[in-house]
Design brief:
The structure is a single chain. By secondary structure, the protein is an all-alpha fold. The protein has 2 domains: 51 residues; 136 residues, AhpD-like, CATH 1.20.1290. The chain is 60% helix and 0% strand. The chain is built from 8 helices and no strands. Helix 4 packs across helix 7 and helix 7 crosses helix 8. 32% of the residues are buried.
Length: 189
């Protein structure tokens, strides 16, 4: 699928850096550069968020993938599966995130993080006091704040990419393990 907004030309230095880092320039960045101030602010904020360290990177990757599966953002699933490979996560486990409820490979904490991610993604959000309290006990206040904002960022990126018509770019093909299909049910997202 072609993005609904044409790709803009990126500054050569940025284009080369992104291609070197990811193997290809991400289409969301190319589309966002139609408004350079927005694109630059988004890249800067994403870089700052990537440096947060109160929550395990694997948990955040699974959280983002759970949001992406719920919203239907193939690009975010694609790039986060690629991230899972580069974080040395269990790829068989990562491949099951879209259907995590039916899978028995996840720890109780991973399951709660994905449940929380989906609850935040629902419209309206359905986060319960019990789920929030459990994560607070396990992650601590700093961890729960970080996870919550991270899931909010995942919602921003998945919804923007979906609205812009951006789909999978093939990053996950390097992993050679297909992602599980999300069960077809009515979603409140």
């Amino acid at each position: 699928m072609t993005p609904r907004i044409p790709k803009a030309e990126l500054p050569m230095q940025l284009k080369e850096a992104l291609a070197q880092q990811l193997g290809a320039v991400p289409e969301p960045v190319e589309v966002a550069f139609n408004q350079p101030a927005v694109a630059t602010a988004s890249l800067e904020f994403s870089a700052k968020a990537a440096a947060w360290d109160a929550v395990d990177e694997g948990l955040k990757t699974f959280a983002h993938m759970a949001v992406a599966a719920q919203v239907g953002c193939g690009w975010c699933l694609d790039v986060n599966y690629f991230a899972a490979l580069n974080q040395d996560l269990d790829l068989d486990k990562a491949s099951q995130v879209p259907d995590w409820r039916a899978s028995d490979v996840f720890t109780p904490l991973e399951r709660e993080v994905m449940e929380y991610s989906e609850a935040m993604t629902n419209t309206p959000p359905t986060v319960s006091d019990e789920l929030s309290g459990s994560l607070l006990r396990q992650l601590g206040p700093a961890g729960l704040v970080e996870l919550t904002v991270f899931v909010g960022i995942a919602n921003l990126s998945t919804r923007v990419n979906t609205a812009h018509g951006i789909t999978s770019q093939g990053y996950s093909e390097a992993c050679r393990i297909p992602l599980a299909e999300r069960p077809r049910t009515a979603s409140a997202a």
